[in-house]
Design goal:
single chain; 454 residues; alpha+beta; TIM Barrel; Immunoglobulin-like; 2 domains; four-stranded antiparallel beta sheet; 9 helices; 20 strands; globular; Pol/histidinol_Pase-like; signal; Phosphoesterase
């Protein structure tokens, strides 16, 4: 039996076994590079010169740091769809066989026409190899030497075609503010671009990285003031507590999109290329950041969880479970209530007692519930979004690792409510200074619950 057949049969058996299981929180990473992310020099593309690890090595380390799933997404480039088809995919199939504990999705870091990078994640099926080759060769802007391909219209054409494919893939915008020219001077990914993607394919272009990778810049061996880079490689638009400004700013871009009623979610990733231990600036998948998805342990349900926002993200293993329910609706869901009805938000978190990958035992110091009105109007920000309640240990109940809290309000208009927590004393996440150690600066963000008043 071929490795492909072994992998597909294994995935089918796993799907059947897990179908009846209850959903649970499964940690993962949708942005992991291997040795197939290389560099061009004198017209030659050399493997292992950007990302350095074989795919099985990435999966082994993902398993080591508690991940149940990951997506292998290497960079695109001139004619690289052929290489991905002939070399990358067979190595991924072999990694699936050698590390079956980690569900490994196939994809690429799409050089999006008219924008910056995005994780293009394929559903795990018998057509993933051919489908990705077609999409990459037809749409990736760096696949050919043609500046005319670099337009948002080209990206929207791609999304239109992707809507005709079953099952549907996912697109998640990576490091959304990294190319910005200033805090709100967006470039590459812009609010208008993200809105257009989501308008065109709301079940495919479902979100963005709330927390980008490359968080270990200050920990690189032999670093000097001259070679030090900012967290996430964010140069002109800083991160805040390791999170992109679009997410970290209360009333910022993410809140603007949510205020329109968009189901637009956030994730976190390692963007792993070269680990700190090997002279790089990155963490292994799951070593620092985790994207937690409420799902059964099947590829299909994990993608469904990402697609429908059953997701929270955290750094430094600050939280390992997070359930938020409002009038019967959970994270990513929608509650329908009547005007004047009392809505009670119930939160249950797990603050794990064990040590994280750095050997620390961080404690959750504060939880914020953040609320915004749903106006249905296009907005690049939403200044009326506010923190409606701050909780500390004096305000919540704790039993071992489990923390519970609740908040009630009277429904007068349609709103969304989301959660943020931290190990720090910062009332709002501060701009990350160059050289900051990321390990004491830990945060957790949950995707929202929508509350429709009718």
């Amino acid at each position: 039996m071929s490795r492909l057949m072994i992998a597909l049969v294994g995935a089918s058996l796993m799907a059947m076994t897990a179908h009846a299981e209850e959903r649970q929180w499964l940690a993962g990473d949708h942005h992991v590079h291997s040795r197939y992310s290389g560099r061009y020099k004198d017209g030659v593309y050399t493997l292992g010169t950007d990302g350095i690890y074989p795919m099985a090595r990435n999966a082994e380390m993902a398993r080591t740091y508690g991940l149940s799933w990951m997506a292998a997404i290497d960079h695109g480039g001139l004619n690289l769809s052929k290489q991905r088809f002939e070399q990358t995919w067979p190595e991924l199939v072999a990694a699936r066989v050698s590390v079956p504990e980690v569900i490994q999705f196939y994809g690429m870091e799409l050089d999006t026409p008219g924008g910056d990078h995005a994780s293009l994640i394929m559903p795990l099926d018998s057509r993933e190899r051919e489908t990705l080759r077609h999409l990459e060769s037809a749409y990736a802007k760096d696949e050919v030497d043609d500046p005319a391909r670099d337009t948002t219209a080209k990206m929207l054409n791609m999304l239109h075609e992707m809507r005709t494919l079953t099952p549907e893939a996912l697109v998640i915008a990576n490091h959304p503010s990294r190319s910005a020219n200033g805090l709100t001077d967006y470039n590459g990914h812009t609010p208008a671009e993200l809105r257009a993607w989501n308008d065109t394919a709301p079940e495919i272009a479902v979100g963005m990285e709330g927390a980008p990778g490359h968080q270990g810049t200050s920990l690189k061996p032999g670093i000097t003031p001259e070679t030090l880079r900012k967290r996430g490689y964010y140069v002109k638009s800083p991160t805040f507590g390791g999170f992109d400004a679009m997410t970290a700013t209360v009333g910022g871009v993410w809140d603007g999109l949510l205020s329109e009623g968009r189901r637009f979610w956030i994730t976190a990733s390692s963007d792993s290329h070269r680990n700190i231990a090997d002279g790089g600036e990155d963490f292994w998948p799951g070593q620092y950041a985790k994207t937690w998805v409420l799902a059964r342990r099947t590829p299909q349900d994990i993608l469904d969880g990402l697609r429908h926002g059953r997701v929270f993200v955290t750094t430094g293993d600050l939280v390992s479970e997070l359930n938020m329910n409002a009038s019967g609706a959970d994270i990513g869901g929608t509650a329908k209530v009547k005007p004047g009805q009392t809505v009670t938000v119930k939160v249950r978190l797990r603050d794990p007692a064990g040590s994280n990958a750095h050997g620390d035992k961080p404690a959750l110091k504060r939880v914020d519930l953040i609320m915004g009105d749903i106006t249905g109007k296009p907005a690049d920000s939403h200044p009326t979004t506010r923190v409606v309640r701050c909780f500390t240990s004096a305000d919540w109940q704790q039993n071992g690792e489990i923390i519970t809290l609740s908040y009630s309000f009277t429904a007068r208009r349609s709103v969304y409510i989301r959660l943020r927590g931290t190990s720090t004393d910062e009332q709002e996440p501060k701009e990350d200074p160059i050289g900051e150690n990321p390990w004491p600066d830990l945060w957790v963000y949950a995707n929202p619950v929508f509350i429709e008043v009718k």
